[in-house]
Amino acid sequence: MDTPVFRERIAASSAVFVIGVAGDSGSGKTTFTRAIREILGDDLVSTITLDDYHRYDRTERRERGVTPLIPEANDLDLLADHIRALKRGERIMKPVYNHDNGTFDQPVPFQPAKVLILEGLHTFFTPDLRSLIDISIFVDPDPCVKRLWKLRRDMEKRGYAREEVIAEMKEREPDYARYIAPQRRFADAVVQIAYSGYGAEASEVRNIYRVTVLQKKLIRQMMEIGLSLDLGELLMLSDRPFLLEYGISTVDGEEMSALTFDGEINHSAIRRLARTLGKQTKAEGIRVYCDRKYVTAGEVAELILAWRILNRWFVLQGDADRTGRKR
Q1: Domain covering 6-323, topology
Q2: How many CB atoms within 10 Å of residue 114?
Q3: Residue 36 has pLDDT above 60, yes or no
């Protein structure tokens, strides 16, 4: 009998697998879990944005003189209770923060999928929250990149004036350094984003960045899906520049492997990984690689993170199978 493909195994699992993503507002948290959403599909993946667990609306924060980055401005205990309930397969009534007007809408029923993504400022802030997360990612763009992204998002999608966004970023800087940045040390993977070494125009106009995926050492690697890059294809002459670099970096006192990409890479260099992921998950049409000759460094990073996430699920499930216990 054929071994069930990965997606079928996740669908049949009794466990809820929790992916935690932390970082500042506008740092690209949603972007770097895009591949795993597309690989597994909406029926297997649900997302909670931690902004929904703010204690105060926009007016109240202004009156109190606090930013959302202060932990006390968020109901992290309720969040942890809700995650526990979701991991038990229970439905919750999730609060809803409305970014359009800065107030709260009525809570909505929320049913967990097999994979639950948590995105927000304080995802790893408490030991209680950290104990509920199966794999953790911290998104850490350079300040200049974060400024560009936040201006674009808040002006284009949330209707803020440029001056408002700049003033808010300045106000938030001390709280980010005190409460958000220290969570980086709890992450299994850290994604650093900088302006491309091939010029600011590449980043600001063509969305090309220098992206480094830093990872803690893997305990075990799953056998079904290997992380394959075709060095032969990488060494072929290309009409667009790219960079691939591997090293060891120290992040918050801990050594992590560092895989860096910059520029645009011919998709043939990573097609084996994309095809293997597609075959094992029945997701042959991974969008970031459909009908594309080149992919950006950020898109390659998305795929590598998806591989790391699937690897973690496999290891945890294998441990549960061997012990005969539910995760």
Answers
A1: Rossmann fold (3.40.50)
A2: 21
A3: yes
